[in-house]
């Protein structure tokens, strides 16, 4: 009996110990060292994976938030059950002489607890607190898949599309991850009712975050925001419009959704079967897998370009590779591209639009019918710039013969936004049937004078003021082509929609801050 009692006391202690260990975080024993996959749910039922390598020594945490090409170091503590760590973004390299320094990345703070082998984490995102659950994974699970064989390089035939720069709407700039079936239908309705379609805008393009995963046969599936892509395409077509979609050559899109890696032919067939007319193909995680050089990028894009052509459906092919490996010099066309991004992402701010827009003039000579430089989509009407700045945006993109892909909410446009996006006189510049590149006439004191000849012998001259105050600008008649240097010329202001006088040998105007005077000069 004594013996039993003794035994049962120790059993009880053991049981109690186990109970305590089981229900309470056992601070002393737990070591978080290892690889973790933190899954953050998106509102559409999908998840975003973030991988960490954590090293724990005592109560101190260090390691890496795994990002390619370089991870971001983390530092923090695991104390009395509470996890706290922050990313330590690298110091940006010193800017080249004369350039402004790049802002340092914002550190991200993670707080949470350890429960049942999982890390329950919280972080402050742009749209509020984001919660994620991290589970331990193997190192291999955090690595990108091995590259797949790429096709031998060849020049794909011209698909005959986009003889003038594509015009349409895309969901990303306004909606990002919040785009859904209803928004796309609403945009198709508004494209017609607002007059945008009459003005020439045709494509309704769904950007990232429509994807879910793959079914048992490997077919790409849509998440709950897009219950029936074929029905949606039919709806858009019923309005006399065309529809575009988005994917990536990598396993994940830039927003962390399913990409076309290893399913290029299958996805092209799916897109064609849905009735898709335009594909934006965004490099994203393709860069984690493949080499970042012109032949490799060409092969990646050729793979999908060929798959699209083999569907025999006319599908505009929009390369999104942020201007890497001088895509405009040839490989964009060879891989079947109708347009290619020449820069990083635009944002709805003067400095972003200005920097992108004016940097494009030097590569304008590489565009040609069917194969356009794409300095990213329009921000007109999104609220971050003044009307003068948006007129500069529209004027520059039109002079560059850039794709005119609106990025605002077409259902709620102000009259001013409409007057900018639907200015038929600037659209006619963008859509000129015989492409001749814009050239810089002069660039002094932050005043840019640009000129582009049109097919009918007229020229467009843009006087742009990049200063923060109104500035006088001018050009001499002698810069004009021979047919326009005589006195018998007609000068039209394409924003005021009226004829103006070019008297004497110099044209002078006061241009508003960040604004433009856009003139069409033709012979009378
Ligand atoms: C990249 C592209 C953007 C947009 C997002 C979507 O950043 O450059 O235009 O498509 O991905 O995730």
From TrEMBL:
One of its GO terms (molecular function) is alpha-galactosidase activity. One of its GO terms (biological process) is carbohydrate metabolic process. Residues 445-521 form the Alpha galactosidase C-terminal domain. Its EC number is 3.2.1.22. It catalyses: Hydrolysis of terminal, non-reducing alpha-D-galactose residues in alpha-D-galactosides, including galactose oligosaccharides, galactomannans and galactolipids. InterPro entries: Aldolase_TIM, GH, Glyco_hydro_27, Glyco_hydro_27/36_CS, Glyco_hydro_b, Melibiase_C. Gene3D superfamilies: Aldolase class I, Golgi alpha-mannosidase II. CDD domains: GH27. The keyword Lipoprotein does not apply. Keywords: Disulfide bond, Glycosidase, Hydrolase, Signal. Residues 1-28 form the signal peptide. Belongs to the glycosyl hydrolase 27 family. This is Alpha-galactosidase. It comes from Granulicella mallensis.
């Amino acid at each position: 009996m004594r013996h039993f009692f003794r035994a049962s006391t120790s059993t009880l202690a053991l049981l109690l110990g186990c109970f305590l260990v089981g229900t309470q975080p056992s601070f002393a024993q737990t070591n978080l060292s290892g690889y973790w996959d933190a899954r953050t749910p998106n509102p559409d039922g999908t998840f975003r994976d973030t991988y960490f390598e954590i090293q724990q020594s005592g109560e101190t945490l260090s390691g890496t938030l795994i990002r390619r090409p370089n991870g971001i170091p983390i530092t923090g503590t695991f104390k009395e059950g509470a996890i706290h760590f922050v990313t330590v973004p690298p110091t940006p390299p010193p800017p080249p002489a004369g350039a402004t320094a790049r802002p340092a990345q914002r550190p991200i703070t993670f707080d949470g607890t350890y429960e049942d082998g999982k890390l329950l984490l919280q972080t402050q995102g742009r749209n509020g607190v984001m919660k994620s659950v991290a589970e331990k994974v193997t190192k291999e699970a955090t690595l990108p898949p091995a590259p797949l064989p790429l096709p031998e390089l060849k020049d794909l035939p011209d698909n005959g599309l986009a003889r003038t720069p594509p015009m349409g709407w895309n969901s990303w700039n306004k909606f990002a991850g919040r785009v859904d079936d209803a928004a796309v239908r609403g945009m198709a309705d508004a494209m017609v009712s607002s007059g945008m379609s009459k003005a020439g805008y045709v494509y309704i393009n769904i950007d990232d975050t429509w994807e879910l995963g793959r079914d048992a046969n490997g077919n790409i599936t849509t998440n709950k925001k897009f219950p029936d892509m074929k029905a949606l395409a039919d709806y858009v077509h019923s309005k006399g419009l065309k529809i575009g979609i988005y994917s990536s050559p990598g396993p994940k899109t830039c927003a962390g959704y399913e990409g076309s890696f290893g399913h290029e032919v299958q996805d092209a067939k799916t897109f064609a079967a849905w009735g898709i007319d335009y594909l934006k193909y965004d490099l994203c995680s393709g860069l984690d897998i493949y080499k970042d050089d012109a032949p490799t990028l060409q092969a990646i894009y050729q793979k999908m370009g060929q798959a699209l052509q083999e569907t025999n459906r006319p599908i505009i092919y929009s390369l999104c590779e942020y201007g890497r490996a001088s895509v405009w010099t040839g490989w964009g066309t060879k891989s079947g591209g109708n347009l290619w991004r020449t820069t990083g992402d635009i944002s709805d701010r003067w400095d972003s639009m200005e920097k992108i827009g004016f940097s494009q003039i030097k590569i304008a000579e590489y565009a040609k019918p069917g194969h356009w430089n794409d300095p990213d989509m329009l921000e007109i009407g999104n609220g971050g710039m003044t009307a003068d700045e948006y007129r500069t945006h529209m004027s520059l993109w039109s002079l560059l013969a850039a794709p005119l892909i609106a990025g605002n909410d077409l259902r709620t446009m102000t009259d001013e936004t409409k007057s900018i996006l639907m200015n038929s006189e600037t659209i006619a510049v963008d859509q000129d049937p015989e492409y001749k590149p814009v050239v810089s006439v002069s660039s002094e004191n932050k005043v840019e004078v640009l000129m582009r000849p049109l097919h009918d012998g007229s020229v467009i001259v843009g006087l742009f003021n990049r200063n923060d105050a109104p500035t006088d600008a001018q050009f001499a008649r002698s810069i004009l082509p021979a047919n326009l240097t005589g006195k018998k010329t007609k000068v039209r202001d394409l924003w005021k929609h009226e004829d103006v006088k070019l008297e004497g040998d110099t044209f002078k105007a006061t241009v508003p801050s960040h604004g433009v005077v856009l003139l069409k000069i033709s012979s009378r």
